[in-house]
Records
---
Amino acid sequence: MQRTYIFDPDRFKWKITIKSYLVLILGIYCLIRWILSPGLNLWIFGVIAAAYGAINSFVLKCEPGKIIVDDESITFDARGERKFMISDITTFNIRENANAQHFLRITTKDGKSQRYWINYYYFSDKEDLINELYHIEMLVHPDGLKFRGGDRKKQFMYRPGQEPEGWFLEVDEDDED
Protein backbone atom coordinates (compact mmCIF):
# COMPACT_ATOMS: atom_id res chain seq x y z
CA MET A 1 0.00 0.00 0.00
CA GLN A 2 1.48 3.32 -1.09
CA ARG A 3 0.92 6.52 0.85
CA THR A 4 1.86 10.02 -0.24
CA TYR A 5 2.45 12.83 2.22
CA ILE A 6 2.53 16.33 0.72
CA PHE A 7 3.88 19.52 2.28
CA ASP A 8 1.23 22.27 2.23
CA PRO A 9 2.01 23.98 -1.14
CA ASP A 10 1.50 27.55 0.10
CA ARG A 11 3.65 26.96 3.16
CA PHE A 12 6.30 25.20 1.04
CA LYS A 13 6.51 28.17 -1.27
CA TRP A 14 7.10 30.61 1.60
CA LYS A 15 8.89 28.45 4.15
CA ILE A 16 11.25 26.59 1.82
CA THR A 17 11.45 28.06 -1.69
CA ILE A 18 11.42 31.79 -1.00
CA LYS A 19 13.62 31.31 2.08
CA SER A 20 16.17 29.50 -0.08
CA TYR A 21 16.31 32.29 -2.65
CA LEU A 22 16.52 34.97 0.05
CA VAL A 23 19.45 33.18 1.64
CA LEU A 24 21.16 33.06 -1.75
CA ILE A 25 20.60 36.80 -2.29
CA LEU A 26 21.80 37.55 1.24
CA GLY A 27 24.93 35.49 0.59
CA ILE A 28 25.72 37.43 -2.57
CA TYR A 29 25.16 40.76 -0.74
CA CYS A 30 27.42 39.72 2.14
CA LEU A 31 30.08 38.51 -0.31
CA ILE A 32 30.09 41.86 -2.12
CA ARG A 33 30.27 43.77 1.17
CA TRP A 34 33.08 41.50 2.37
CA ILE A 35 35.12 42.13 -0.78
CA LEU A 36 34.51 45.90 -0.86
CA SER A 37 34.93 46.82 2.81
CA PRO A 38 38.44 47.19 4.19
CA GLY A 39 39.40 46.51 7.78
CA LEU A 40 37.60 44.14 10.13
CA ASN A 41 35.31 42.04 7.97
CA LEU A 42 32.44 40.43 9.82
CA TRP A 43 30.61 39.95 6.52
CA ILE A 44 32.35 36.59 6.14
CA PHE A 45 30.02 35.15 8.79
CA GLY A 46 27.03 36.12 6.65
CA VAL A 47 28.70 34.52 3.63
CA ILE A 48 29.29 31.28 5.55
CA ALA A 49 25.74 31.12 6.93
CA ALA A 50 24.22 31.87 3.53
CA ALA A 51 26.46 29.31 1.83
CA TYR A 52 25.33 26.66 4.33
CA GLY A 53 21.65 27.47 3.70
CA ALA A 54 22.05 27.56 -0.08
CA ILE A 55 23.97 24.27 -0.16
CA ASN A 56 21.30 22.57 1.98
CA SER A 57 18.51 23.87 -0.28
CA PHE A 58 19.95 23.63 -3.78
CA VAL A 59 22.75 21.05 -3.68
CA LEU A 60 21.90 18.58 -0.90
CA LYS A 61 18.10 19.04 -1.26
CA CYS A 62 17.40 18.46 2.43
CA GLU A 63 13.82 19.73 2.64
CA PRO A 64 11.34 17.47 0.86
CA GLY A 65 8.00 18.69 -0.44
CA LYS A 66 6.58 15.19 -0.88
CA ILE A 67 7.27 11.85 0.80
CA ILE A 68 6.02 8.58 -0.69
CA VAL A 69 6.11 5.44 1.47
CA ASP A 70 5.20 1.92 0.39
CA ASP A 71 6.01 -1.56 1.70
CA GLU A 72 9.42 -1.77 0.00
CA SER A 73 10.65 1.81 -0.35
CA ILE A 74 10.57 5.42 0.76
CA THR A 75 10.86 8.29 -1.72
CA PHE A 76 11.70 11.92 -0.98
CA ASP A 77 10.88 14.62 -3.51
CA ALA A 78 13.00 17.69 -2.81
CA ARG A 79 13.66 19.39 -6.17
CA GLY A 80 14.21 15.91 -7.59
CA GLU A 81 13.20 12.45 -6.40
CA ARG A 82 15.42 10.19 -4.35
CA LYS A 83 14.17 6.65 -3.73
CA PHE A 84 15.51 4.35 -1.03
CA MET A 85 14.70 0.65 -0.90
CA ILE A 86 14.08 -0.27 2.75
CA SER A 87 16.07 -3.48 2.33
CA ASP A 88 19.13 -1.43 1.22
CA ILE A 89 19.06 1.00 4.13
CA THR A 90 21.73 0.39 6.79
CA THR A 91 21.15 3.53 8.88
CA PHE A 92 17.83 5.29 9.41
CA ASN A 93 18.08 7.68 12.33
CA ILE A 94 15.39 10.12 13.41
CA ARG A 95 16.39 12.97 15.68
CA GLU A 96 13.39 14.76 17.16
CA ASN A 97 13.34 18.51 17.59
CA ALA A 98 10.91 20.56 19.63
CA ASN A 99 9.87 22.84 16.77
CA ALA A 100 7.81 20.26 14.84
CA GLN A 101 10.82 19.01 12.90
CA HIS A 102 12.59 15.72 12.60
CA PHE A 103 16.15 15.43 11.37
CA LEU A 104 16.44 12.25 9.36
CA ARG A 105 19.75 10.63 8.35
CA ILE A 106 19.75 7.74 5.88
CA THR A 107 22.69 5.57 4.76
CA THR A 108 22.44 2.74 2.21
CA LYS A 109 24.51 -0.42 1.71
CA ASP A 110 26.50 1.16 -1.11
CA GLY A 111 27.70 3.93 1.26
CA LYS A 112 25.52 6.77 -0.02
CA SER A 113 24.01 8.94 2.67
CA GLN A 114 21.41 11.66 2.70
CA ARG A 115 19.87 13.85 5.37
CA TYR A 116 16.48 15.51 5.49
CA TRP A 117 14.70 18.07 7.61
CA ILE A 118 11.10 16.91 7.91
CA ASN A 119 8.75 19.75 8.99
CA TYR A 120 6.00 17.25 9.75
CA TYR A 121 3.60 19.89 11.06
CA TYR A 122 2.92 21.08 7.49
CA PHE A 123 2.53 17.66 5.86
CA SER A 124 -0.79 16.02 5.12
CA ASP A 125 -1.59 13.24 7.62
CA LYS A 126 1.28 14.24 9.88
CA GLU A 127 0.45 11.59 12.51
CA ASP A 128 0.65 8.78 9.94
CA LEU A 129 3.86 10.24 8.50
CA ILE A 130 5.54 10.20 11.90
CA ASN A 131 4.36 6.63 12.52
CA GLU A 132 5.61 5.56 9.05
CA LEU A 133 9.05 7.02 9.72
CA TYR A 134 9.29 5.33 13.12
CA HIS A 135 8.09 2.06 11.60
CA ILE A 136 10.90 2.20 9.03
CA GLU A 137 13.40 3.05 11.76
CA MET A 138 12.19 0.04 13.74
CA LEU A 139 12.59 -2.20 10.67
CA VAL A 140 16.17 -1.03 10.15
CA HIS A 141 17.16 -0.90 13.85
CA PRO A 142 14.83 -3.34 15.69
CA ASP A 143 17.08 -3.47 18.77
CA GLY A 144 17.66 0.29 18.91
CA LEU A 145 17.35 2.12 22.18
CA LYS A 146 14.13 3.83 21.07
CA PHE A 147 12.33 0.51 20.79
CA ARG A 148 13.56 -1.31 23.89
CA GLY A 149 10.99 -2.13 26.49
CA GLY A 150 7.53 -0.78 27.02
CA ASP A 151 4.94 -0.38 24.30
CA ARG A 152 7.11 1.64 21.90
CA LYS A 153 8.25 -1.39 19.88
CA LYS A 154 4.73 -2.74 19.74
CA GLN A 155 3.37 0.68 18.75
CA PHE A 156 5.44 0.78 15.54
CA MET A 157 5.28 -2.93 14.67
CA TYR A 158 2.82 -2.34 11.82
CA ARG A 159 2.48 0.37 9.21
CA PRO A 160 -0.36 2.82 9.89
CA GLY A 161 -3.61 1.40 8.60
CA GLN A 162 -2.35 -2.20 8.45
CA GLU A 163 -2.50 -3.19 12.09
CA PRO A 164 -4.95 -5.93 13.17
CA GLU A 165 -8.13 -4.86 14.95
CA GLY A 166 -7.50 -4.10 18.64
CA TRP A 167 -3.86 -5.24 18.54
CA PHE A 168 -2.52 -2.40 20.70
CA LEU A 169 -5.37 -2.40 23.22
CA GLU A 170 -4.71 -5.91 24.56
CA VAL A 171 -4.16 -6.01 28.32
CA ASP A 172 -1.54 -8.30 29.87
CA GLU A 173 -2.98 -10.73 32.39
CA ASP A 174 -0.41 -9.59 34.99
CA ASP A 175 -1.57 -5.96 34.74
CA GLU A 176 -5.20 -6.69 35.72
CA ASP A 177 -4.49 -6.35 39.45
Note: The first helix runs from residue 9 to 36.
---
Amino acid sequence: MNLFLAFTGEGSSDTRFMTVLTERIVEKFLLDREITAELSWTIMPKKPGSSHSNILKASKEAKDQNILFIHRDADNNNWERAYQNHFETAFQEITNDKDGLYNQNLIAIIPVKETEAWMLCNKQILKNNIETALSNSDLELTYQLSRIEQVNDPKGKIQRAIEIHNQALTKKQRRYSIKIGDLYDLIGNEVPLSDLEYLDSFVRFKNRLEEVLNSMVNP
Protein backbone atom coordinates (compact mmCIF):
# COMPACT_ATOMS: atom_id res chain seq x y z
CA MET A 1 0.00 0.00 0.00
CA ASN A 2 1.28 3.47 -0.88
CA LEU A 3 0.07 6.52 1.02
CA PHE A 4 0.65 9.93 -0.52
CA LEU A 5 0.38 12.65 2.10
CA ALA A 6 0.41 16.42 1.53
CA PHE A 7 1.00 19.08 4.14
CA THR A 8 0.66 22.84 4.19
CA GLY A 9 1.32 24.91 7.27
CA GLU A 10 2.65 28.05 8.85
CA GLY A 11 6.41 27.53 8.95
CA SER A 12 9.23 25.09 8.38
CA SER A 13 9.79 24.29 12.08
CA ASP A 14 6.11 23.53 12.70
CA THR A 15 6.04 21.47 9.50
CA ARG A 16 8.93 19.31 10.69
CA PHE A 17 7.24 18.64 14.02
CA MET A 18 3.80 17.95 12.57
CA THR A 19 4.90 15.67 9.73
CA VAL A 20 7.07 13.55 12.03
CA LEU A 21 4.26 13.29 14.57
CA THR A 22 1.63 12.55 11.93
CA GLU A 23 3.76 9.80 10.44
CA ARG A 24 3.97 8.13 13.85
CA ILE A 25 0.17 8.16 14.21
CA VAL A 26 -0.33 6.77 10.71
CA GLU A 27 2.28 4.05 11.21
CA LYS A 28 0.75 2.99 14.53
CA PHE A 29 -2.73 2.87 12.98
CA LEU A 30 -1.48 0.66 10.16
CA LEU A 31 0.69 -1.53 12.39
CA ASP A 32 -2.28 -2.22 14.69
CA ARG A 33 -4.11 -3.55 11.62
CA GLU A 34 -1.08 -5.40 10.24
CA ILE A 35 -1.03 -3.21 7.13
CA THR A 36 2.28 -2.41 5.46
CA ALA A 37 2.55 0.92 3.66
CA GLU A 38 5.07 3.26 2.08
CA LEU A 39 4.49 6.90 3.08
CA SER A 40 5.45 9.77 0.78
CA TRP A 41 5.16 13.46 1.68
CA THR A 42 4.55 16.52 -0.46
CA ILE A 43 5.18 19.75 1.45
CA MET A 44 3.24 22.68 0.02
CA PRO A 45 4.46 26.16 0.99
CA LYS A 46 1.84 28.56 2.28
CA LYS A 47 0.86 31.09 -0.38
CA PRO A 48 -0.09 34.76 0.01
CA GLY A 49 -3.77 35.39 0.57
CA SER A 50 -6.56 34.49 2.95
CA SER A 51 -6.92 31.19 4.77
CA HIS A 52 -9.93 30.45 2.58
CA SER A 53 -8.06 30.91 -0.71
CA ASN A 54 -5.00 29.05 0.60
CA ILE A 55 -7.07 26.00 1.53
CA LEU A 56 -8.83 25.95 -1.83
CA LYS A 57 -5.53 26.26 -3.72
CA ALA A 58 -3.83 23.59 -1.62
CA SER A 59 -6.77 21.19 -1.93
CA LYS A 60 -6.82 21.64 -5.69
CA GLU A 61 -3.05 21.11 -6.01
CA ALA A 62 -3.21 18.07 -3.73
CA LYS A 63 -6.19 16.52 -5.52
CA ASP A 64 -4.27 13.32 -6.31
CA GLN A 65 -2.80 12.91 -2.82
CA ASN A 66 -4.49 10.54 -0.37
CA ILE A 67 -4.72 13.06 2.47
CA LEU A 68 -4.10 16.79 2.81
CA PHE A 69 -3.10 18.12 6.24
CA ILE A 70 -3.64 21.83 6.85
CA HIS A 71 -1.98 23.35 9.89
CA ARG A 72 -2.73 26.68 11.52
CA ASP A 73 -2.19 27.64 15.16
CA ALA A 74 -5.25 28.79 17.09
CA ASP A 75 -3.19 31.66 18.58
CA ASN A 76 -5.47 33.50 21.04
CA ASN A 77 -8.63 31.70 19.92
CA ASN A 78 -10.04 28.41 21.13
CA TRP A 79 -10.21 25.49 18.69
CA GLU A 80 -13.80 26.15 17.63
CA ARG A 81 -13.24 29.84 16.91
CA ALA A 82 -10.05 29.14 14.95
CA TYR A 83 -11.84 26.48 12.89
CA GLN A 84 -14.77 28.80 12.15
CA ASN A 85 -12.50 31.71 11.23
CA HIS A 86 -9.97 29.90 9.06
CA PHE A 87 -11.30 26.51 7.90
CA GLU A 88 -15.06 26.12 7.94
CA THR A 89 -16.21 27.95 4.82
CA ALA A 90 -13.42 26.54 2.64
CA PHE A 91 -14.05 23.00 3.91
CA GLN A 92 -17.77 23.40 3.17
CA GLU A 93 -17.05 24.61 -0.37
CA ILE A 94 -14.74 21.66 -0.97
CA THR A 95 -17.24 19.17 0.48
CA ASN A 96 -19.93 20.54 -1.87
CA ASP A 97 -17.71 20.21 -4.95
CA LYS A 98 -19.31 17.85 -7.47
CA ASP A 99 -16.65 18.19 -10.19
CA GLY A 100 -13.78 16.39 -8.48
CA LEU A 101 -11.63 19.53 -8.36
CA TYR A 102 -10.46 19.13 -4.77
CA ASN A 103 -8.95 16.66 -2.36
CA GLN A 104 -11.80 15.63 -0.06
CA ASN A 105 -9.64 14.01 2.63
CA LEU A 106 -8.84 17.19 4.51
CA ILE A 107 -7.48 17.21 8.05
CA ALA A 108 -7.20 20.41 10.05
CA ILE A 109 -4.38 20.61 12.59
CA ILE A 110 -5.12 23.44 15.04
CA PRO A 111 -2.87 23.44 18.12
CA VAL A 112 -4.08 25.60 21.01
CA LYS A 113 -2.48 28.06 21.36
CA GLU A 114 0.46 27.07 19.15
CA THR A 115 2.48 24.07 18.00
CA GLU A 116 4.95 24.49 20.85
CA ALA A 117 2.16 23.67 23.34
CA TRP A 118 2.25 20.10 22.03
CA MET A 119 6.02 20.09 22.59
CA LEU A 120 5.49 20.85 26.29
CA CYS A 121 3.53 17.64 26.91
CA ASN A 122 6.43 15.70 28.37
CA LYS A 123 8.78 17.76 30.51
CA GLN A 124 11.38 15.01 30.84
CA ILE A 125 11.71 14.59 27.07
CA LEU A 126 12.03 18.35 26.70
CA LYS A 127 14.75 18.42 29.38
CA ASN A 128 16.56 15.43 27.87
CA ASN A 129 16.77 17.19 24.53
CA ILE A 130 17.90 20.46 26.09
CA GLU A 131 20.48 18.25 27.87
CA THR A 132 19.85 19.80 31.25
CA ALA A 133 19.89 18.35 34.76
CA LEU A 134 17.95 21.29 36.19
CA SER A 135 14.58 20.70 37.82
CA ASN A 136 11.18 21.62 36.38
CA SER A 137 11.00 24.38 38.96
CA ASP A 138 14.45 25.71 38.02
CA LEU A 139 13.42 25.80 34.36
CA GLU A 140 10.03 27.39 35.15
CA LEU A 141 8.22 24.35 33.75
CA THR A 142 5.62 24.36 36.51
CA TYR A 143 2.44 24.10 34.43
CA GLN A 144 0.04 21.18 34.82
CA LEU A 145 -0.16 18.78 31.89
CA SER A 146 -3.95 19.12 31.82
CA ARG A 147 -3.65 22.91 31.46
CA ILE A 148 -1.05 23.22 28.69
CA GLU A 149 -3.59 24.76 26.32
CA GLN A 150 -3.95 27.63 28.81
CA VAL A 151 -0.21 28.43 28.77
CA ASN A 152 0.03 31.92 27.27
CA ASP A 153 3.30 31.63 25.36
CA PRO A 154 4.39 28.00 24.87
CA LYS A 155 7.24 28.88 22.52
CA GLY A 156 8.46 31.50 24.97
CA LYS A 157 8.36 28.94 27.78
CA ILE A 158 10.63 26.59 25.82
CA GLN A 159 12.95 29.47 24.95
CA ARG A 160 13.07 30.47 28.62
CA ALA A 161 13.96 26.94 29.72
CA ILE A 162 16.83 26.90 27.21
CA GLU A 163 18.02 30.32 28.40
CA ILE A 164 18.01 29.21 32.06
CA HIS A 165 19.96 26.06 31.16
CA ASN A 166 22.46 28.11 29.16
CA GLN A 167 23.17 30.41 32.10
CA ALA A 168 25.14 27.61 33.77
CA LEU A 169 27.25 26.96 30.65
CA THR A 170 30.54 28.45 29.62
CA LYS A 171 30.66 30.72 26.60
CA LYS A 172 32.14 27.89 24.52
CA GLN A 173 29.47 25.44 25.71
CA ARG A 174 26.70 27.90 24.86
CA ARG A 175 28.01 28.09 21.29
CA TYR A 176 27.16 24.39 20.85
CA SER A 177 24.07 24.20 23.05
CA ILE A 178 20.67 23.21 21.72
CA LYS A 179 18.53 25.84 19.98
CA ILE A 180 14.75 25.74 19.92
CA GLY A 181 14.85 25.10 16.17
CA ASP A 182 16.67 21.82 16.86
CA LEU A 183 13.84 20.50 19.05
CA TYR A 184 10.96 20.17 16.59
CA ASP A 185 12.09 16.94 14.91
CA LEU A 186 13.47 15.49 18.15
CA ILE A 187 10.36 16.01 20.26
CA GLY A 188 8.06 15.12 17.37
CA ASN A 189 9.77 11.74 17.26
CA GLU A 190 9.80 11.15 21.02
CA VAL A 191 6.76 12.69 22.72
CA PRO A 192 4.39 9.89 23.80
CA LEU A 193 1.08 10.00 21.97
CA SER A 194 -0.59 9.15 25.28
CA ASP A 195 0.69 12.42 26.75
CA LEU A 196 -0.61 14.41 23.80
CA GLU A 197 -4.07 12.95 24.38
CA TYR A 198 -4.44 15.28 27.37
CA LEU A 199 -4.88 18.05 24.78
CA ASP A 200 -8.27 18.51 23.16
CA SER A 201 -6.73 19.97 19.99
CA PHE A 202 -4.55 16.88 19.51
CA VAL A 203 -7.45 14.49 20.16
CA ARG A 204 -9.55 16.25 17.49
CA PHE A 205 -6.69 15.92 15.00
CA LYS A 206 -5.99 12.26 15.82
CA ASN A 207 -9.67 11.28 15.70
CA ARG A 208 -10.14 12.90 12.30
CA LEU A 209 -6.98 11.27 10.94
CA GLU A 210 -8.09 7.84 12.12
CA GLU A 211 -11.54 8.45 10.61
CA VAL A 212 -9.98 9.19 7.22
CA LEU A 213 -7.59 6.24 7.45
CA ASN A 214 -10.48 3.94 8.37
CA SER A 215 -12.38 5.06 5.27
CA MET A 216 -9.34 4.23 3.14
CA VAL A 217 -8.61 0.76 4.51
CA ASN A 218 -12.33 -0.14 4.83
CA PRO A 219 -13.89 1.50 1.76
Note: The two ends are 14 Å apart (CA to CA).
---
Amino acid sequence: MKKKSIYIFGLVLLTSIVSFGLGFVFDKSNKATAQKKIFEKWEYGSINSIFYFEPEKQRIDKIFGIVEFCKMTQAGCQRSEIRYELDYGKFLKQANLQETFDSRKLASLKASELAFQKALSQLGNSGWEITSEPEKDFKSVSLYDYERLDNKNLLYTKTNTKAIYFKRLKNR
Protein backbone atom coordinates (compact mmCIF):
# COMPACT_ATOMS: atom_id res chain seq x y z
CA MET A 1 0.00 0.00 0.00
CA LYS A 2 2.85 2.31 0.80
CA LYS A 3 4.39 1.77 -2.63
CA LYS A 4 1.07 2.59 -4.33
CA SER A 5 0.74 5.87 -2.36
CA ILE A 6 4.25 6.93 -3.36
CA TYR A 7 3.47 6.06 -6.97
CA ILE A 8 0.22 8.15 -6.93
CA PHE A 9 1.97 11.07 -5.18
CA GLY A 10 4.76 10.97 -7.78
CA LEU A 11 2.26 10.87 -10.64
CA VAL A 12 0.32 13.86 -9.24
CA LEU A 13 3.55 15.78 -8.70
CA LEU A 14 4.77 15.03 -12.22
CA THR A 15 1.40 16.07 -13.72
CA SER A 16 1.47 19.34 -11.75
CA ILE A 17 5.01 20.16 -12.88
CA VAL A 18 4.18 19.44 -16.54
CA SER A 19 0.96 21.49 -16.37
CA PHE A 20 2.77 24.41 -14.77
CA GLY A 21 5.54 24.24 -17.37
CA LEU A 22 3.10 24.08 -20.29
CA GLY A 23 1.20 27.01 -18.86
CA PHE A 24 4.37 29.09 -18.89
CA VAL A 25 5.30 28.03 -22.42
CA PHE A 26 1.93 28.76 -23.98
CA ASP A 27 0.98 31.84 -21.95
CA LYS A 28 1.75 34.70 -24.35
CA SER A 29 -0.25 37.34 -22.46
CA ASN A 30 2.54 38.05 -19.97
CA LYS A 31 5.12 38.52 -22.70
CA ALA A 32 2.85 40.70 -24.83
CA THR A 33 1.93 42.90 -21.88
CA ALA A 34 5.55 43.26 -20.80
CA GLN A 35 6.67 44.12 -24.33
CA LYS A 36 3.80 46.55 -24.80
CA LYS A 37 4.69 48.43 -21.62
CA ILE A 38 8.27 48.80 -22.77
CA PHE A 39 7.19 50.58 -25.96
CA GLU A 40 4.43 52.81 -24.53
CA LYS A 41 5.42 56.46 -24.72
CA TRP A 42 3.44 59.36 -23.35
CA GLU A 43 2.98 62.98 -24.31
CA TYR A 44 2.38 65.56 -21.61
CA GLY A 45 0.59 68.89 -21.57
CA SER A 46 -1.02 71.40 -19.26
CA ILE A 47 -3.61 74.14 -19.10
CA ASN A 48 -1.71 77.03 -17.56
CA SER A 49 -4.06 79.96 -18.06
CA ILE A 50 -7.75 80.71 -18.39
CA PHE A 51 -8.57 84.28 -19.34
CA TYR A 52 -11.67 86.39 -19.50
CA PHE A 53 -11.47 89.92 -20.75
CA GLU A 54 -12.47 93.21 -19.23
CA PRO A 55 -15.28 94.07 -21.61
CA GLU A 56 -15.18 97.39 -23.38
CA LYS A 57 -18.56 99.05 -23.72
CA GLN A 58 -18.08 99.91 -27.40
CA ARG A 59 -17.14 96.30 -28.31
CA ILE A 60 -19.67 94.15 -26.50
CA ASP A 61 -21.50 92.21 -29.20
CA LYS A 62 -19.19 89.21 -28.72
CA ILE A 63 -17.42 88.38 -25.50
CA PHE A 64 -14.94 85.55 -25.34
CA GLY A 65 -12.80 83.50 -23.00
CA ILE A 66 -9.51 81.83 -23.82
CA VAL A 67 -7.76 78.77 -22.43
CA GLU A 68 -4.06 78.29 -23.09
CA PHE A 69 -2.84 74.72 -23.56
CA CYS A 70 0.86 73.86 -23.48
CA LYS A 71 1.98 70.61 -25.12
CA MET A 72 5.36 69.83 -23.60
CA THR A 73 8.07 68.99 -26.13
CA GLN A 74 11.83 68.69 -26.03
CA ALA A 75 12.01 72.18 -27.56
CA GLY A 76 9.74 73.61 -24.85
CA CYS A 77 6.07 74.51 -24.68
CA GLN A 78 4.06 74.20 -27.88
CA ARG A 79 1.28 76.69 -27.08
CA SER A 80 -2.27 76.64 -28.44
CA GLU A 81 -5.45 78.55 -27.60
CA ILE A 82 -8.99 77.30 -27.21
CA ARG A 83 -11.53 80.13 -27.52
CA TYR A 84 -15.20 80.36 -26.74
CA GLU A 85 -17.17 83.28 -28.14
CA LEU A 86 -20.32 84.29 -26.27
CA ASP A 87 -23.10 86.25 -27.94
CA TYR A 88 -23.62 89.01 -25.39
CA GLY A 89 -27.15 89.89 -26.57
CA LYS A 90 -28.33 86.30 -26.16
CA PHE A 91 -26.63 86.07 -22.79
CA LEU A 92 -28.49 89.17 -21.53
CA LYS A 93 -31.78 87.83 -22.82
CA GLN A 94 -31.31 84.34 -21.32
CA ALA A 95 -30.12 85.70 -17.97
CA ASN A 96 -32.81 88.41 -17.99
CA LEU A 97 -30.22 91.14 -17.28
CA GLN A 98 -29.80 94.77 -18.27
CA GLU A 99 -26.65 95.96 -20.02
CA THR A 100 -24.28 97.16 -17.27
CA PHE A 101 -20.62 96.81 -16.40
CA ASP A 102 -21.50 94.00 -13.96
CA SER A 103 -23.46 92.08 -16.63
CA ARG A 104 -20.51 92.47 -19.05
CA LYS A 105 -18.15 91.15 -16.40
CA LEU A 106 -20.51 88.24 -15.62
CA ALA A 107 -20.72 87.40 -19.34
CA SER A 108 -16.92 87.50 -19.59
CA LEU A 109 -16.55 85.09 -16.70
CA LYS A 110 -19.17 82.80 -18.25
CA ALA A 111 -17.26 82.87 -21.57
CA SER A 112 -14.05 81.78 -19.82
CA GLU A 113 -15.86 78.96 -18.01
CA LEU A 114 -17.32 77.77 -21.33
CA ALA A 115 -13.86 78.03 -22.95
CA PHE A 116 -12.53 75.80 -20.17
CA GLN A 117 -15.31 73.26 -20.75
CA LYS A 118 -14.66 73.37 -24.50
CA ALA A 119 -10.93 72.83 -23.91
CA LEU A 120 -11.55 69.81 -21.67
CA SER A 121 -13.90 68.33 -24.27
CA GLN A 122 -11.48 68.88 -27.17
CA LEU A 123 -8.53 67.51 -25.22
CA GLY A 124 -10.52 64.46 -24.13
CA ASN A 125 -11.63 63.79 -27.71
CA SER A 126 -7.96 63.96 -28.75
CA GLY A 127 -6.97 61.29 -26.23
CA TRP A 128 -5.67 63.54 -23.45
CA GLU A 129 -6.38 62.38 -19.88
CA ILE A 130 -6.36 64.67 -16.84
CA THR A 131 -3.69 63.60 -14.37
CA SER A 132 -4.11 66.35 -11.77
CA GLU A 133 -6.90 68.01 -9.83
CA PRO A 134 -8.69 70.57 -12.06
CA GLU A 135 -8.36 73.57 -9.76
CA LYS A 136 -8.07 76.82 -11.74
CA ASP A 137 -8.18 80.54 -11.25
CA PHE A 138 -10.05 82.45 -13.97
CA LYS A 139 -8.15 85.67 -14.58
CA SER A 140 -9.55 88.94 -15.92
CA VAL A 141 -7.18 90.82 -18.25
CA SER A 142 -7.34 93.64 -20.74
CA LEU A 143 -7.98 92.43 -24.29
CA TYR A 144 -5.57 95.09 -25.54
CA ASP A 145 -2.78 93.77 -23.31
CA TYR A 146 -3.56 90.17 -24.23
CA GLU A 147 -3.37 90.84 -27.96
CA ARG A 148 -0.14 92.86 -27.84
CA LEU A 149 1.92 90.56 -25.57
CA ASP A 150 3.55 87.39 -26.91
CA ASN A 151 4.33 86.12 -23.43
CA LYS A 152 0.85 85.82 -21.87
CA ASN A 153 2.35 84.84 -18.50
CA LEU A 154 3.25 88.49 -17.94
CA LEU A 155 -0.45 89.30 -17.56
CA TYR A 156 -0.80 87.97 -14.05
CA THR A 157 1.04 86.42 -11.14
CA LYS A 158 0.58 82.72 -10.55
CA THR A 159 -0.17 82.82 -6.84
CA ASN A 160 -2.83 80.34 -5.76
CA THR A 161 -3.04 78.94 -9.30
CA LYS A 162 -2.22 75.39 -10.26
CA ALA A 163 -1.77 74.08 -13.78
CA ILE A 164 -3.97 71.20 -14.88
CA TYR A 165 -1.79 68.41 -16.22
CA PHE A 166 -2.65 65.95 -18.98
CA LYS A 167 -1.10 62.93 -20.65
CA ARG A 168 -1.88 60.82 -23.70
CA LEU A 169 -0.39 57.81 -25.37
CA LYS A 170 2.04 58.95 -28.03
CA ASN A 171 1.38 57.87 -31.61
CA ARG A 172 4.28 55.95 -33.10
Note: Strands lie at 42-53, 62-73, 76-87, 129-130, 138-141, 164-169.
